Structure to design on (67 residues):
């Protein structure tokens, strides 16, 4: 599995238990990278849920206008 740097989008290489970005040189320990990935995933999920609610409300609102 390849990892991408959250800062610059460069490739991360695993060396001696740490991930090093080949583009910007940022260094992550394995647990730091996992925490960061988890927080990004939960943020994306939350945004998707909010967008879904907005679309459902708009659909409901527009259907009420046509009645």
């Amino acid at each position: 599995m390849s990892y991408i740097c959250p800062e610059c989008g460069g490739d991360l290489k695993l060396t001696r238990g740490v991930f090093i970005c080949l583009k910007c040189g940022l260094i992550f320990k394995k647990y730091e990278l996992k925490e960061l990935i988890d927080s990004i995933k939960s943020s994306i999920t939350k945004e998707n849920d909010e967008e879904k609610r907005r679309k459902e409300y708009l659909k409901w609102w527009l259907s009420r206008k046509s009645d």
Notes: The longest helix spans residues 30-66. The chain has a mean pLDDT of 87. The chain has one domain: 3-66.
